[in-house]
Amino acid sequence: LLMEPTEFLQSLKHGINFDDMPPRHVRDESLPHAPVRVLNFTPAQRKLALKNALRYIPEKVHDQLIPEFLEELDLYGHIYMYRFLPTYPMKAYPLECYPAQLTEAKCIQLMIQNNLDPSVAQYPQELITYGGNGAVFSNWAQYHLVMYYLSIMNEHQTLPMYSGHPLGLFPSSPDSARVVITNGMMIPNYSTKENLEKFYGLGVTMYGQMTAGSYCYIGPQGIVHGTVLTIMNAGRKYLGLNTLKGKVFVSSGLGGMSGAQPKACDILGCISVVAEINPDAAHKRHSQGWVKQLSDNLEELIEMIKKARDNEESTSIAYIGNIVDLWERLAKEDELLVELGSDQTSCHNPFNGGYYPVDVTFEEANRLMVEDIPRFKELVQESLRRQIDAINILTERGMRFWDYGNSFLLEASRANADVFTDDQLSFKYPSYVEDIMGDIFSLGFGPFRWVCTSGKEKDLQITDEIAADICEELAEQCIPENEQQYRDNHLWITKAGENKLVVGSQARILYSDAEGRAQIALAFNKLVREGKLSSPVVISRDHHDVSGTDSPYRETSNITDGSKFTADMAVQNFCGLAMRGASWVALHNGGGTGWGEAINGGFGLVLDGSEKIDHIIQSVLLWDVLNGVSRRAWSGNDNANWTINKAVKSNEDLSVTIASKVDDAKLDEYLH
Fold first, then answer.
1. Which of 226, 215, 5 is nearest to 120 (CA)?
2. What pTM, to 2 d.p., does this model score?
3. Measured between alpha carbons, how far is 128 from 133 in angstroms, rounded to an integer?
4. Interval 414-444: pLDDT, tens
5. What is d(CA 630, CA 626) in angstroms, rounded to the nearest whole number?
6. Sheet (strand 248-252) strand order
7. Which of 151, 162, 536, 639 has the least CB density, counted as fewest CB within 10 Å?
8. Contact between residue 427 and residue 411 where contact means Cβ atoms under 8 Å apart
9. CA distances from 550 to 449, 510, 554, 593 (A)
10. C-alpha separations of 354 from 232, 332, 611 in Å
């Protein structure tokens, strides 16, 4: 386009012009597209899906669009409304380019467009950001309507979002959240994967994953940092090592989230081998520099691993092939070539493109998942059994394996794989939160993020320097457990620029506790106020955090009082953020572990330089961390108990119910 962004983004405040309909778009086949969804709708359901989609369209053009929408429903299993794909390049533009009246609304427009940027999003034309089905909206009419509402919104209005559907602008107050998002909220008895497919096809709900549907995704950088911390701490815990030089990590997946694995291993200086069944995904990560080497030959791959081990060479290798083949070949090797292993296939969605079975080609698998669903499911479950068998052989020889919270072990158990301990009460392998990251969450540390809305690299560099200084200062003032976290994150933030982690918006992530997050945010707000940052900063976090997610096999897997299957924490967090002044808030069903397996939420807060925001920062961030710390302390976690007691002593307005110690031996005496 020859126009400046300020010119073509003016269209956001007008919505779709149905008097001068845009021409029909053909899908861009140079982009990746979401797998076809198999609906098996009855005639009545098919009619209802069309009727629901046409509610966004004036009746005068229904005759033109009914055949088109019907074709999309039949071909792709969903009505995406490709006709209304924007013709301008989709990306995060400098904040000043957006037409909204309110700064908060401009920031939300920027964050939405970043989530749909083709360099960021997994399936951009289907509005899927990551995870195979993590949607920003259900169709393109919703996108245009939301952008219109944000453009005309004033400070006395709030936009409620019902699973991608903008309900409208409702009177509220200047202190209210500007947007309140819920995604996939279901009556509990109906929160099944089958109902997700049905109701998404009908256009009445959607899967927001975590930061896809809350407009807070920052590209793979977020998961890179989490993966760095996970593998680093796995090395410390399992191998007794502070350096992973010459050690091998094996996993699978090079998608929107899983693609972070090789980059994380490069940062740590170890050897990564990641299987990816989709050649396009593997080549994309290689072209981006996130994978150093490619191989589609197992024997060649084994020699590459041996050479890297012998030379203690840091490298990342993508195996273009099936992960089951890779594990089985490693299990046959006399020498143990792998020290650490995990899996990041999208097993929360195993039968619709999240997991590809062995012994069939990628293309054949895509055909089977649509044309022969029972056979495809049978192949997936057989593959899961074989994968676990190979992993079991390697762990018996000394490899350490963990579940990455993607429902891998859960789906393997449903396939009757050998994943249970002898007593059949628990999995052989821990969740990474349960065994590695849980204690870090209990100390109050989690994934804090920010976006420099100017789009300027210089602004991001300034924020990196400020965050690094604060981490260093706090490391010198705290207990050893917290000191290690601050020093790890100080190293991360000082190396972040040279590691070239930015994809999409000028964003950064680090792990911090409530004190660190508040100090960093207050410093940023001061810099905006003083004009040393050229535009406001948006702070947010991953939903995968201290308080943000209730998920019994991941975020709350180390809750031991029986409450890990409850969701009060995440719901209370969402409500508390809204009432404390967050710019927008979100609550979702699902997340990385799958529909019905978690409740998770997040927020965005715009730092506009005002003194009012200084107060909101402290209120929002204290609650956002200490809610989860308090819950973890109540369940009996020692780290959380220490953290919350320290917080109570330093804040006269904080009073928390503290659990009394219970003597297990005394209970055993009475019970037996």
1. 215
2. 0.90
3. 6
4. 999 999 998 887 899 988 887 888 888 999 9
5. 6
6. 293-295, 315-320, 271-276, 248-252, 340-341, 400-401
7. 162
8. no
9. 20, 21, 8, 11
10. 27, 27, 46
